[in-house]
């Protein structure tokens, strides 16, 4: 979250007139983030978040609106969009697409504990059960096809050994996944790092920033979470956080046999996905705004740890 397009109190007050949310009282820009302008808005009745979309495919915004509303209707802790008096959520403000959300409680955990990992695993499992029935569709923009096409763009910027590693990993992924039936699919978050969650103590108050959301393999989403939430500084998996996440997740949605077999490889594939996407931002496609890119080295470290040490056993859960 950040502010790239400033707004005045008068602009926001006029914007809120379309909604039944109360009288405008305060506006605060939110620092941080890389893509959109975000503001905390206070009225005499409630606290809200206003987002202006600075980049990306704006025609895809209805998918995100529908997904958030669908998950909120199913009692997931996500910020379902605020609709105006005519039932419309997506508006324009300062010549940018704009959405209004309820402000959810809490802050993200920099070092998640076991209880927080358990809470996230439970909610993600619940979300994946529900999201398999979501009727909207958006192809996964960071799937295996993307890896195959995009990894060539960074090869000249990395060492010969890393070039070989990246090429070999993509080849192995293609070979292994082609030998299995299609894995369970549904709407996924696609970027569920710890800073896209809000915790009030050990209670998960919200999952936010669904703008990488898409239709994809549920295992892909779970692997992104585990690589971020359950990796130690050296990239190796932390057994306690790993078990807490996977036990809670599987109590909601047990993994299939194909998912179990492909799990170690999926952890590697999602590690490569973030190593590559961060390399692309550093060397090929820098952000539109003057921001410091994420360090690609973190996911190179995680990838090496997954290759050298594999995945920990998937815990068995009695339902």
From TrEMBL:
GO terms for biological process: threonine biosynthetic process. Pfam families: APH. CDD domains: HomoserineK_II (cd05153). GO terms for molecular function: ATP binding; homoserine kinase activity. It is an enzyme of class 2 (transferase). Its EC number is 2.7.1.39. Residues 27-254 form the Aminoglycoside phosphotransferase domain. The keyword Mitochondrion does not apply. Pathway: Amino-acid biosynthesis; L-threonine biosynthesis; L-threonine from L-aspartate: step 4/5. Keywords: Amino-acid biosynthesis, ATP-binding, Kinase, Nucleotide-binding, Threonine biosynthesis, Transferase. Gene3D superfamilies: 3.90.1200.10, Phosphorylase Kinase, domain 1 (3.30.200.20). InterPro entries: Aminoglycoside_PTrfase, Homoserine_kinase_II, Kinase-like_dom_sf, Pseudomonas-type_ThrB. It comes from the Bacteria. It catalyses: L-homoserine + ATP = O-phospho-L-homoserine + ADP + H(+). PANTHER family: AMINOGLYCOSIDE PHOSPHOTRANSFERASE DOMAIN-CONTAINING PROTEIN, AMINOGLYCOSIDE PHOSPHOTRANSFERASE DOMAIN-CONTAINING PROTEIN-RELATED. Belongs to the pseudomonas-type ThrB family. This is Homoserine kinase.
């Amino acid at each position: 979250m950040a502010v790239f397009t400033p707004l005045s109190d008068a602009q926001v007050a006029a914007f809120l007139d379309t909604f039944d949310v109360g009288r405008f009282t305060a506006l605060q820009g939110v620092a941080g983030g890389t893509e959109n302008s975000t503001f905390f808005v206070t009225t005499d009745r409630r606290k809200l978040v206003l987002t202006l979309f600075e980049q990306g495919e704006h025609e895809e915004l209805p998918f995100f609106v529908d997904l958030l509303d669908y998950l909120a209707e199913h009692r997931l802790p996500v910020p379902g969009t605020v609709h105006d008096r005519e039932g419309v959520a997506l508006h324009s403000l300062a010549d940018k697409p704009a959405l209004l959300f309820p402000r959810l409680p809490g802050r993200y955990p920099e070092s998640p504990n076991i209880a927080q990992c358990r809470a996230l695993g439970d909610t993600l499992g619940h979300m994946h059960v529900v999201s398999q029935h979501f009727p909207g569709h958006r192809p996964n923009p960071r799937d295996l096809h993307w890896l195959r096409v995009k990894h060539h763009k960074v090869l000249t910027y990395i060492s010969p050994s890393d070039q070989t590693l990246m090429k070999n990993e993509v080849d192995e992924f293609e070979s292994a996944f082609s030998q299995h039936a299609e894995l369970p699919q549904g709407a996924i978050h696609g970027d569920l790092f710890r800073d896209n969650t809000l915790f009030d103590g050990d209670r998960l108050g919200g999952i936010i920033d669904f703008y990488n959301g898409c239709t994809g393999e549920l295992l892909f989403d779970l692997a992104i979470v585990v690589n971020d939430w359950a990796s130690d500084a050296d990239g190796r998996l932390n057994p306690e956080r790993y078990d807490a996440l996977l036990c809670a997740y599987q109590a909601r949605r047990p993994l299939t046999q194909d998912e179990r077999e492909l799990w170690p490889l999926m952890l590697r594939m999602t590690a490569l996905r973030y190593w590559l996407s961060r390399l692309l931002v550093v060397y090929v496609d820098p952000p539109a705004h003057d921001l410091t890119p994420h360090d690609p080295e973190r996911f190179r470290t995680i990838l090496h740890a997954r290759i050298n040490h594999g995945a920990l056993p998937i815990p068995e859960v009695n339902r």
